Amino acid sequence: MTKKKSSSNNGGKPKRKHGVKYGKSGEKSSLSLHHHDGVSGKIRIGFVIGVIIVLSSIIWRFAVQNDLDWLNNKRQFVNQQISSLLDSPLKSLVRVTCENGNCGEDVLHTEERTLISGKTLEKNWKLFEIPRDMQIWTLDAFRDGFVKNKLIGARHSNTDAFLVEQAFLAAYLAMLIKRNISAQYTSANHQQQKSSFYLDILPTYEDYESHHPVTFDLRELNSLYGAHTQTYFLVSKRKEEIESEYKAFVRISSEFSESISYKDYVAARLNVQARGFEAGPLSDQDAPLKELEWYRKNFGVNIREKVTAMVPILDGLNSHHIERNVQYKYVPESKKFLAYASKNIPKGAELFDTYGERADLFPTYGFVNGDFSERTSVLLGGHRIVDTRVVSANTYIMEQKKQIIIYLQQDDGYKECVTEEDVVAMRFKRLKRKALLYIVNRYRNWIVSFPAREIDQTHGSIPVDSGVDQIISTGRLLALSHRDYNGNAYSVLKDTIEELEQRKDDDDDDDDSPLVMKTGGGDGLEYRALIWVWQLASHGLNQNCDFHEEFTCSKAVRLEMDSFKRNSKQWLATYVRHQEIVSLETLKQYSEHSYQEYARRNPNFDPESEDFFYRNTLCPTDTIGLKQLISE
């Protein structure tokens, strides 16, 4: 390769050679010595002046070049600042992330708060990766000096229970947002920081106020959904938990209350709830075991196996299970989250992830798919359920004892109502009451969930999966008699209760794991359990509808929904109610079809035998023995 010659004179002229002057014939000039000395002095002065001129030229050129470099840098900085001001925070975050090599060229574009494909993408095309230093973990929260020293020991006041992991991450996130706002007035370079762009993106309380039900007051929730609904229960439970968490932090740290308002905390808590991802397990390089054990002891949180992570850009993807075109995975070795195309994506298409096939999208995240494509679920039973981590179990125990008596008035499997005279049956009934008190606040014992279904599906195409298993198990408990499980029902139920108690003592129980009555109790028990499930569904429909012929109620609610503006509070409430009613109609249809088929196919079915007997009217509350259970 030919190299160009470089000039080494820095732009100066070549130096002139100085010496003795000769005449034309080569003889020395005949100038006098005095005159010669004068000329030599002038030559020396001229030489010095020439050097000064050359040096001045060099210095001037260097100074000008430095000024130009400074001006160019300044211009570039100003342009970046102007670009940052003109760009949305999401666009700025995407830009700086991609500039650091964390995403492919021209892969990600933005439109306001939406991520779209910048070009046609093939399946499995890597979209972006988010390194650990861009993520915010609960581990970071625990290591923060303020959280570690000022919020240690925060507990729910009514139960003295530790707060959950996400509460501490939310407190830390709220403080980071406050620090970021403060930095905007003290640091000219704060906008260059990726963390600043990310914190600017996160929704505020005012953003959530228009649509997230946790920001609604209880009166409005009751008006929109009804206090008997699953949505009301889940939202009011979360409101109660968040309020208790904030009070716990404020009670333990006045500094926290001075800098973080309740609305600040609610917004941060909802951001963690709606935008957090699961990372882990943690290695010794992430955090020594001794450090993690200290957090477990002082904060009541075990983050060794999994930890909540806030992941910029990845959490900016909207969610829709059917339209999903992006998948992600967490890489434990590098601590990176990688996102890639799950199918071919055309240029300009919105990028969708998914929260999964969940039925609680609205109470948890504050949105619905809007096309009836999500799972449906509903809360069953006629008793109050409380969150015993936040509210003392004794607060409503007397009310709950009275409410569960209705489950003991049925006496299915007995031709006559059980009284004190039947010692064996009454002994079993007391154990059954104990089991009911154990699960009265266990939410998972009282819900049912179904895959999405078409409104006009027939009996032969009822969409059912494992989401119905637990309510049938609860139905077994409600229908249980001492003769089931080949006469061993007492021992089976006693062992099941003890197993639940043991899990709680071992700290493996989250106060929501259900009591499970296993199969094998006999044909009669399965038949009666399905009838109990049918009755629970019928009770739910009576609460929600004036009439409940199959699918009539949900169709009426769907028509009502069309009268509201899409995504308004009324429209969302009607949509959510519709989904719960669909669950009730599906459950009623499924259980009725199942117990009828069970009876038809069972050669030993005899509706007059005690094994298959179910009671149409409840046993009176003044029945001897039952009356005593009420007062115990």
TrEMBL record:
UniProt-annotated stretches for the region Disordered: 1-29
Membrane-spanning parts: 45-63
Entry keyword set: Membrane, Transmembrane, Transmembrane helix
Gene3D superfamilies on file: set domain protein methyltransferase, domain 1 (3.90.1410.10)
Leader peptide range in chain numbering: none
UniProt GO MF annotations: protein-lysine N-methyltransferase activity
Highest taxon of source: Eukaryota
Protein name per the record: Uncharacterized protein
Source organism phylogeny: Eukaryota, Sar, Stramenopiles, Ochrophyta, Bacillariophyta
